[in-house]
Design brief:
The structure is a single chain. By secondary structure, the protein is an alpha/beta fold. Among the domains are: 34 residues, no CATH class; 270 residues, 3-Layer(aba) Sandwich (Rossmann fold), CATH 3.40.50.1820. The longest helix is centred in the N-terminal third of the chain and has 34 residues.
Length: 472
């Protein structure tokens, strides 16, 4: 009986094989094509303190200028599911001079978050790699693990320099991961990336006129973005006054004395703006209603000691105001750097979240990217802008003033949007642009509202409007 059964099974298999052969080579080829994207030397395999995951991630360098030895560091996470089908999203942090690995990847939207011991990682249940493949770039040189062998490069650092290196990075990165070369592509980020992202997007749109250089850019997503200097400054002072950070008198002096269109401020204006930052030194400008980080040994408040016309980038903020310290500790662990293939043979002893020398020496910035917004809208790109409404550095008022200056027709009136039956914020849709707020979130919105941020990102990627009812 057993012999008869085996013969029947064999006969059935032989009948089935021809049809399997019709489809299996295609499936195998697809899998091999996807696996061929793996740049094995950049595969991260033994990252200290990493939770077990079901997706692959890669980290390493892309040389953007061979003669000068300029190399940008990246960390790439495949999507949690269906990485071969989901879009690719490039995330940029700002500063200028702050790390996308230290902030975006491990404090905000990546699959790993640095724990409070600064020696391990925890799983982020609200990681955006649930919806897309995530590529974090430390840009420009001098940020995080990115570097140059030519010190003169730092003299030229500015917006144009950064956009061109980021563009070169993308094309060279696609050589490492060729199946993403034609994938739907988005750029997202926050803060000074509000300048980086539109300029990179504009460059892509221009270069796409050559089909051989085409990148399938679909849209941009900008969080609490620096946009236009005049509107940004007006928003900072009006927000500080409306949230009782400064007095009526200080606000009135600024209104009467300050011309934010001018590069030169009179003494009354300078002193009044200094008063704004004097008051903000007492709290976290990037998160008005959360605590400061206190040094346990001396009860010293960790805040900036001085202020300048341009505000320094955020060093403390979020639900745990000391998280930046944990992050710095983790990325200075030699085994962490080794696992991430960081350093390119150089001895890295002092990784920083933000390079303040780079920030202070920034040579060129575009005053306003609003003209670029118009170009991107005309090119048919999707533009979503969002604001945490408890951020004083790039407050919701700055962004509203900037969008208002565009003069776009309103297509959907101001309304609340919902998450888990609660009002998550408010949203207004314009012809070519959508703007949303996050209720109770500071500068780095996903740090404060991780679940809401993931739902928001999912709507952005899927092309759906934000929920307009408590029970969508």
């Amino acid at each position: 009986i057993l012999d008869i059964a085996l013969k029947m099974i064999l006969s059935f298999y032989l009948l089935l094989v021809p049809s399997l052969l019709l489809f299996e080579p295609v499936a195998v080829a697809a899998r091999l094509s996807q696996r061929s994207n793996e740049n094995i030397s950049d595969l991260v395999t033994q990252l200290p303190g990493q939770p077990s995951v079901g997706f692959k991630h890669y980290a390493g360098y892309v040389t953007v200028n061979e003669s000068n030895g300029r190399a940008l560091f990246y960390w790439f996470y495949e999507s949690l599911t269906l990485p071969e089908q989901k879009p690719l999203v490039l995330w940029l942090n700002g500063g200028p001079g702050c790390s996308s690995v230290g902030y975006g990847a491990t404090q905000e939207i990546g699959p790993f978050l640095v724990d409070s011991n600064g020696s391990a990682l925890t799983a982020n249940p609200y990681s955006w790699n649930r919806e897309a493949n995530l590529l974090f770039l430390e840009s420009p040189i001098g940020v995080g693990f990115s570097y140059t062998n030519t010190s003169a490069d730092y003299v030229n650092l500015g917006d144009d320099f950064t956009a061109n290196d980021a563009y070169t990075f993308l094309h060279k990165w696609f050589l490492k991961f060729p199946s993403f070369r034609t994938r739907a592509f988005y750029i997202a980020g926050e803060s000074y990336a509000g300048k980086y992202i539109p300029q990179l997007a504009e460059l892509i749109v221009e270069k796409n006129k050559d089909p051989s250089l085409s990148i399938d850019l679909r849209g941009v997503l900008l969080g609490n973005p620096l946009t236009s200097n005049v509107e940004d400054w007006k928003g900072i002072v009006d927000y500080a006054w409306s949230h009782a950070i400064i007095s009526d008198e200080t606000h009135n002096i600024i209104l009467k004395s300050c011309d934010f269109n001018s590069d030169t401020w009179n003494n009354d204006c300078t002193q009044a703006v200094d008063e704004v930052y004097k008051q903000y030194k007492e709290i976290d400008m990037y998160s008005l209603y959360t605590s400061l980080c206190i040094n346990d040994n001396s009860s010293e408040v960790v805040v900036f000691k001085s202020w300048s016309k341009m505000v320094m980038p955020r060093l403390m903020g979020g639900y745990d105001p000391c998280v930046d310290g944990y992050t710095k500790s983790y990325y200075n662990i030699p085994d962490v750097q080794k696992a991430l293939h960081a350093g390119d043979g150089r001895n890295l002893k002092d990784w920083k979240l933000c390079n303040m020398t780079l920030y202070n020496d920034w040579t060129y910035q575009l005053d306003s990217v609003l003209p670029i917004y118009r170009k991107l809208i005309a090119a048919g790109l999707k533009i979503w802008v969002y604001s945490g409404d408890t951020d004083g550095r790039v407050p919701v008022l700055s962004t509203r003033y900037s969008i208002s200056a565009l003069g776009l027709p309103i297509t959907q009136a101001w309304r609340p949007w919902y998450h888990n039956k609660q009002v998550a914020g408010w949203v207004q849709e314009y012809k070519g642009l959508s703007f949303a707020t996050f209720r109770g979130a500071g500068h780095a919105v996903p740090t404060f509202k991780p679940s809401e941020s993931l739902a928001f990102f999912s709507s952005f990627i899927s092309g759906k409007s934000l929920p307009s009812h408590r029970n969508p």
